[in-house]
Structure formats: C-alpha cells, structure tokens
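Model it.
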Amino acid sequence: MTRKALSLLLTLMLLLCSLPGWAAGMAVSVAVGGVSISVDDDDVVTSATNVGSTLYLLYQSGSVATRPVDTNEPTVLGEVLNTQYYTEAPQTEEGQARMDRLFVWDGRVCGMCTPTGEVWTLLDDAGAFAPVKVEGLTLDTSGLVFQEEGEGYSVAVEVSSFFCEGDWLYYTGMVYMGTPYAVAGRISLETGEKQVFACENLTGLAPVGDGSIMAMLYDVSALYSVTTQADLTKPAQYGLFDPEKDAVGTLADIPTDSDMGGYSTSGICVGNGTLYYLDGSRIAGLDLASGEKRVSAYTGGGMVSNGGQALYVEGYYVLISGYEGLRVFKLDPEGIENGALTIFGEFGSNTHNAFVRSHPEIAVDVSGDYTSDIEKLTQAMVSDTGAYDVLLMGLSYMPVERLIEKGYCADLSQNADIMEKVSAMYPEVVEPLMADGKLYGVPVGMSGTCYGVNMELWESLGLTEEDLPTSLPELYDFAANWVWDYGEDHPEISLFDLGSYSSQMLYSLLLNDYIAYMQKQGGELAFDTPAFRRLMEGFSAIDFEEILSVQDQDEDTYWTPDALFSTSMSVGYLAYRDERFQPLYLAVEEGGEPFIGMNLSVLTVNPRTKRMDEALLYVSEYLDNLDKTSAYITLFPDHNDPVENDYYQTNLESMQESLAKMQESLENASEENRAEIEQQIQWQEESIADWENYRYSVTEEQIADYRENVAPLVYIIRQNVFLNADTSATSEINKLLMQYMEGAVNLDSLVRELDQRVRLMQLEDQ
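Modeled.
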C-alpha cells in the first residue's frame, strides 16, 4: 500500500459517513424570489436573451416564448428544432428553423445553430414570429464542440456565458474531457471566423453596457490535481477584458463567503455599476466604484457550480443553467439587509427545494461553510450576522450529541406537528436525539453500505449459499486463499469491485466496522482486543498485489464490472440497488451476529434563532418531503406502499396517444401500407406492456425485504474520537497505520499505540 493511499484511510472513513449528504447535496436547486417557468412541467429553458425588460426564451422542446422579466407569464411564439444536444447537423423538415443559442444582434432577436453555424432571425419587421435563415453567413462554431482525439466522438462545451457585443458573439465554457478546463473565444458575425482567446482561465465574460467587457478568471484545474488547501480556496478574479489584445487589465479578487473560494463563484453579469455573481447560494453585488460587496439576493438553493448563462435585465438577475432552466431574482429588494433563514449542511436537496418552492415569501440562505468542529459550529450559532437557524448534520461524524448536551439544540417536544411525525418513526432512530424525555432533533435520512456477492459468479466456482462467508475474518480468509483456490483458474473474475483500490477500501471498512462494533458493545473504544487482532491478522494475510496479478485487468483499474464481491452495496437507498449482487451481511467476529452500521442525518434548530417559527416550519415540511425511495421508507415502519416511477404516467400517456394515432391511421390506410402500420401497432402495444415492468422505483417486494432482512440489523453509529480527531491527530494515526502495513511495527506495537492515541484524544475531547 502506498504512502499516499494510506494517508487517505481516515479520509475514506469520513467520506463513507458523509456520502448520503453528498448524494443529497448533488440534487438540483430551485429559485426563491422567482419560480422556474416552462411550457409544461417537464420542459425547461435552455437559452435566453432580452430586449429591454422582455425575455426571449428557447425551451428544450423547441418552443420559443417571451415573458416580462418581472412576471412569470410566458407567451409561446412558435417552435423550432432545439439543437442543444447535437454535435452534428440534425435532419429537419424543409424550411424548419434549428438553433440552440439565442442572442440580440443589431436590435434583432437571433438564434444560432451550433452544429451547422447557421444564424436565424426570429421575428419579422412587424414583430411576428417568422424565423428566417441569414443567407451567406455561416459561423465557425468549432470552438463550442470538441473532438476527443482518437476516440471518434465529440462533446459540446458547457457554456457559461454567451452574448453579442458589436458584431461579435462572445462565449466561455467548460470542456469535460479528462481534466476539465475552461475555453473562451468570439465569432465574427460579419465573416463567420472565430478567434479563440489564449488568455488563460477565462471562466466568464459579460457586457458592461458601454462596449467594454468584464471578465472572470479562475483556475478550475486546481480542483483536479494534487494541491494545497490554500490553492483550493483561492478566490476568482475580475477585470476588464480587451479582446484585441486578448488580455485582462488590472485584476482584483472577487470576494466570497464560501470556504471553496472561486469554485463557488460563477454567473457574472454587470448592471447599474455593479458586478453581480453567484457566491455559493447567494447572488452577490460588488460595487465597481468602491469595491464594496453586498448580498443582493438569496437563491434559496445550494451552491451552483460553474456553468450556465447569467443576464442582467433591468434590476433582475436572470440565470439559465442546464438542469434547472430559467430562474429570475429581484436584485437588492427591500428588506434584503434583514438576512434570511439560514440552513447549515444543505447543498440544495430536493427536500430542501420543496420548502423553497412552497414559500417564496421566506428568504432562505444555505450556508457556504461546512465544518464538524464544535467550536466553529457554536460560534456560528451565536453570531450576530448569518447565524445558523437550522442545521443538517450526520450523527456519526458531527458533534450532534455534544451540541445537545451543551444546550445548542432547541427542544422540539412542544411542537405537536413535529412530534406527531417523529412518533411514527422506528424508536431506535429517534433515541439518539432524546434527552430527559425531550426531543432535540429529527432524523431525516439514513444510509450505509454492506458487502455484496455476485451469486452467478459464486456458483460458477462450484460454490453454494452454504459456502458464503458470514463474518469479516471468513471473508479475509477466502481472499487470502483466492489465488491458489480459484484466481489462477479464473482470471476473468475480479475478486473485489474496486480493483487496485480494494486494499484501501477494505481497510477503511475494517476500521469503520470495528469502531461501530465496539460502540454496539457499549464499552470504551479499545484496539487491544481479540476481535481487532483477528481482523488485522486476517487482513494482513491478503496479498492484494498477487490477486491483481492473476486478474484480466489493468493494475490501475478503479472499478471492474466482473467482480465476485462488492465492497459498497448501498443500504437505505432502495431505488439504487445493483441487481448483480446479493447483500452479504457480515459479523465482525466469527460466530457473532451481523449488523449494519448506518449513518443518520438529522435536523436540529438553533435555540437562539430569531426565526423560530420559520425554522420549525422548515423542519416540519422537511419531514413531509423526505425522499420517497429512501428515508420515507427506512425511517418509518408503516410506510409500505410501492413508489411509482416519476415518469411512468407521462410516458404511458405518450405511448398510448401514439398508439391511438397509429390505430386511427390504420382505418384509412391503403392495402399496401396496412401491414407496416399493423407491425408498428404491435411493437407499440409490446412497448406499453413492457413499460409496466418499470412502473415502480421501489416495489412492495423490495420494501418487504428491507423490513425482514435489513431493519432488524440496523445499528445507528454515533460520533467517536477518531472521527472527531483534529488534523494533527489524524496525521499521526495515518502514519502509525502506514508503518504497520509496511512492516515497520508489529501488531502488538500497533494496538498499543492506537490505544494510547485514543486515550489522549478522549482526554483532549473532554
């Protein structure tokens, strides 16, 4: 095991605990102060421009509409072929307009088709919708489509700015091939020629209004290379861009409230002497004359990553991003200085967004900070500005129980609505949040992982269910003997799904499982035990290099599909089960009882909040909108109805409508066409019948399996000194583990040093 890999061991432990939060965190956020609009519920805006206060919108479906910037009242003008996802020219009907980018050129609303370089005007001289192709003008759009060398496929740039200034179209964006990188350039609307800008790290451009152009610069590659924490938190910069010189003038830092520096900064636009930009979940305004920063709007959602087009439209910030479509925010509204209901630990989950959508009258802010340090948390809770009102935390890796002990969690027992909902949960998920008969937090999510086995591969080795390991030591013994017993004869089978990274993952899981095991026993954490010694001896007997040497895979393979064992089967997210694997619930000790260590996500309320009514409403409605495929089932024993696929009904109706049209056309079809139409009808009927197999995201059988086989094994993991250790302590532990794996210290020395370190951390933690 390499030094770098071992240094990640405890980080992996933390990562495993925090995955559910990140899974929720990666969900799409929605607007506050403006609602996403669409022609129908599933349609989203993919491009927009404006003439004065009127927005012109291109929808994913191809619909073109207008709306006033200050009201959500779109008017459909007509339809074109939206070429957003095309990298080559699509087939069209004669005269059909095709485009994927809107812009205003010389006062006229136009559309550009990236795959073909065509330019279309949308309106005639009377203002009626009448798309006309601009003859004799073909733009070189190759800077917006990149070809993978040697792979034979191309990818479109994820555009972050696109606008017309003078007779030039300007663009910036990201290319996600290998290590992501920024691209920028402009295209002449007179000659069609492109100019790719050599200026590095241009992540955004915006018209200032006087003919000049503002630029934002940030080195995104720092996120994808080995670097320092200081590099990761560097701010983005801004300055005026000279396209003739291909250079930015005097640069200044763009201030941010986020711990992630320039990564959380995107979507620049300029208006009224102010540079506006997304700063995490907020829209910030930077006065260009004074350099003073202010909060100009709250989006209510999580951090928006780089990407999307921002427009300044007469006092409004208009954002168009790939997944969320159009969002409009009033800038610097009355009362903005009073702050917002501030949520810690949320990154814009669907559950959070449901509250934001339902309550546009409540300003909601998502904290850009994230820490598990109890002092930082408590300081933020008593802060005069931006104090946390509601906190989303993981019980296993955050100091939830200590916050309860120290009086930093409000008593929720007096809220009848919340208590009624929590009383329907499994008692064991509520118990950690109770003290003296009072409730100080609510469970809102639960997840964990277990091992899995591919039974088809297992049986191909001549093995049966009775031969499966029932404990970690048995699994390690099987792995230690794998090459001799089976591996040499079956190079097509990988023992574990993570290939060359299996040793790190298995060791991380060993530590997690053992710590949870000791917690479950009810005693102090100690490593000088027969159980830990047996685990370490069994793990040390596995020669991972020898295992890799007999497998038909590259030694750097991160994941392999033909694996006998899975190291991370999801438990708790019922819609995301890998059907190739059967869960393998293992005991820590041979002959012991198996259990599943689960990470519980909880909401608590700051007892010092000045927005108690709003905070309690947030908690109550969060419980109403829990993920139907996970927490809604896993936290409540009586929620046993199957969960229908979100797209089942709409797709079924669409298929039925198509079938009806086919049947209607059959009635009037000529003899020569009847056979073909009858075949189409048969295929459509078969498709409708097959679609029934995809009706449910979670079936009754899956829920019953969870109740019978998983729920009885659940153990809620609490925070421990390892997961509460500071950086220096973690570094020392990593160093000690590395010395053992490299043979520099023996097992007796390892357990003795680990126990000494634990005792020291416990003293420091008091």
